[in-house]
Amino acid sequence: MDMNGKKKKFFFLGPKNNWEDLLDYEISNEIKDKFNNEMRELGYL
Fold first, then answer.
1. In tens digits, what is the pLDDT along the chain, a chain of 45 residues?
2. Cβ(36)–Cβ(45) under 8 Å?
3. pTM listed for this prediction
């Protein structure tokens, strides 16, 4: 958490470097399929 008590994303690359835009579409979908529950829990989806 940050100093304001808000959750911080572990893999935050900044607004211009969205991880979904950096990965190939097929790889991005595979990651989302395999780790859907975890990603939702952590606020990535």
1. 556 776 666 666 666 777 677 788 898 899 999 999 999 998 888
2. yes
3. 0.51
